Amino acid sequence: MHLRPARPDDADLLVDLVALAVAWSGRDAADHAQVLGDDHLVRYVEGWPRTGDRGTVAVDDEGCPLGGAWLRLLPASRPGYSYVADDVPELTLAVLPHGRGRGVGTRLLDACLTGDLPAVSLSVEDGNDRARGMYLRRGFVVVGREGGSDVMLRTAPGGPATAGSTATW
Ligand SMILES: CC(C)(COP(=O)(O)OP(=O)(O)OC[C@H]1O[C@@H](n2cnc3c(N)ncnc32)[C@H](O)[C@@H]1OP(=O)(O)O)[C@@H](O)C(=O)NCCC(=O)NCCS
Fold first, then answer.
1. For 19-28, 47-56, 128-137, which range has the lowest pLDDT when averaged over its residues?
2. Which of 1, 20, 95 to mutate to test the pocket of ligand 1 (most atoms within 8 A of CB)?
3. Ligand 1 centre from 25 Cα, in Å?
4. CATH for 2-155?
5. What's the pTM?
6. Where are the domains of the chain?
């Protein structure tokens, strides 16, 4: 397995990964068409790539995708589920079912947290303890509540005490 930057031609993959993130429990089914047709979910992928987007894709030895993670700035006028501030990017992360449980998700998460980001937010649904555990171990803390999910925020060491003040892109 290795990691590579997400590319413009990964747009369809990212749509599928949003569907997997929604369907993490197996309770809520979601597919490609539903993501594209859902005004909220589509915000994470529409127009990919946009200025400020940054992402990583994990691929196997044949170059087939195993999963991906990306960050997108979503404005208050069209926020994601983990909106904190206009200058705090929201994280999306999912690993294809056959790639799970061997460190791919952790490596993708770490790839998104390297660099100069003052803060990153995400949404994790109640019961998704595998994902929640990863986030807690990487320093995310719960800062809000949206439906049946927690909004989590990670402020980088040396970053702003309060998110949403000084991020630059
Ligand atoms: C959550 C997800 C991204 C994790 O990816 P992954 O590649 O399976 O995760 P990893 O192998 O890196 O393991 C992450 C943690 O889960 C634990 N884990 C792995 N497989 C597990 C299993 N079968 N049961 C319980 N815990 C497990 C690991 O021990 C690890 O914990 P650690 O940090 O204490 O070592 C992946 O399961 C996934 O895509 N789930 C569906 C989509 C989703 O939930 N996305 C996140 C939305 S917020």
1. 19-28
2. 95
3. 12
4. 3.40.630.30
5. 0.93
6. 2-155
